[in-house]
Amino acid sequence: MFKRIWKRLGLVAGISLSLLVAGCGSNGGSEGGAADEGKIKLVYVEWDTEVASAHVIKKVLEDQGFDVDITPVDNAVMWESVAKGEADGMVAAWLPATHGDLYEEYKDQLEDLGPNLEGAKIGLVVPKYMDIQSIEELDQYAGKLNKTITGIEPGAGVVKSAENAVKTYESLKGWQVQTSSSGAMATALGEAYKNKEPIVVTGWSPHWKFAAYDLKFLEDPKGSFGKEEHISTIVRKGLKEDMPKAYKILDQFSWTAEDIEQVMLEISEGSDPAKAAEDWVEANQGKVAEWTKGVE
Q: 176 forms bridges with which residues in the sheet?
């Protein structure tokens, strides 16, 4: 436990130090703010979705003349650093469930600009060629799947929900959630899909796998995986006054699952995240213009 505490303190201290160095010799920004005029610091949790969104918004802000630093941190530090003004913002808040406890803890210390992506969700995912529609029908594949759900990292929210589903659904009696990693899950899915074999994985959307394969979420009538979520943009208090142009772009930032999955797919195929973001921005100037509308 103490190791986790020191790790968290170290991450916060690292953010503070980088901000101090970035701010030396600057002329603008409010006292105690995270960035001076023209410099902006964003944080994100290192999930596939947030790697994509952080790099895209970084590219858009840079094209508008901002000096942008994006830093991957863990969930708690992401929220804490924005609440304390050590970072300017994030476009990575999964609400109302995934980050709900952190939102409740820090909501009075930051500003919620609302959803930048609607329809995010978690659940059990199968290829469309599997002739079932609901979790309640998974028992039809019990033998072929060895009563196993292919999961990701132990302790992940979607894994916990899958373990809850195993306890809740009679059709999943005797099943197990086999934990591994996000990468291992994606590899297993790809191999099964290539051979048109049955597989059920813990999944979430947006994710590049939906752009690469024909997949579907299984219906969850018992609600083990909760309702649909959204991804919100959160900024520190005072950003609107300190950096009105950056604030306006972040406030107007909004896209779809299909948009983000294009970036995620390119990254999954080996492209550098910055290059994938640049490619998407160049190909979607109309949408980007909506984000920068009114910025002079």
A: 148
Q: What is the pTM of this model?
A: 0.76
**31-35 long-range Cβ contacts below 8 angstroms, 24+ apart:** 32/85, 33/85, 33/88, 33/236, 33/238, 33/239, 33/242, 34/85, 34/86, 34/87, 34/88, 34/236, 35/88, 35/242, 35/243
Return the residue matching tokens 């809740």. Answer: 168
d(CA 213, CA 189): 9
Cα separation, 111 vs 238, in Å, equals 9
Q: Say if CB 164 and CB 88 are below 8 A apart.
A: no
pLDDT tens-digit map of 76-94: 999 999 999 999 999 999 9
- Give the pLDDT score at 4: 38
Cis peptide before 127 (omega within 30 of 0): no
CA distance 79 to 260: 22
Q: How many CA atoms lie within 13 Å of 288's alpha carbon, on the beta-carbon side?
A: 19
- Which residue type does 50 have? E
Q: What is the pLDDT of residues 232-260, one digit of tens each?
A: 999 999 999 999 999 999 999 999 999 99
Cα–Cα distance, 247 to 294 (Å, whole number)? 12
Q: What is the pLDDT of residue 141?
A: 98
Longest dimension (CA), the chain: 67
